[in-house]
Amino acid sequence: MSLNDQDISRIANLARLELQPDEQARMLSKINDFFGIVAQISAVDTTGIVPMAHPVDAMQGAHIELRLRPDVASEPNQRDLNQRSAPAVERGLFLVPKVIE
Questions:
Q1: Is the pTM for the entire model greater than 0.85?
Q2: What 3-state class would DSSP assign to 41?
Q3: Sequence-separated contacts (24+) of 37-42 with Cβ below 8 Å
């Protein structure tokens, strides 16, 4: 997969970026280089390779204990206090204007 100048212009427009011609050429080159790297990685045969659950799994022979904290709520529920300054709230939810492009 590779991009062309029109693709870069469209992406810049969607991102609300104004690219100069030299910047656009540099972005085109960098993004296409990235796609080249992805293609090289995708070409590697990974048949029979077991996915790692964590990068530490790659360190053979090393038993590393991950430091995990308990999954408990440490702050009290302050929803009402936090929503006092909101312009509109309904049943504990912030109400925001509808935005459709």
A1: no
A2: helix
A3: 39/1
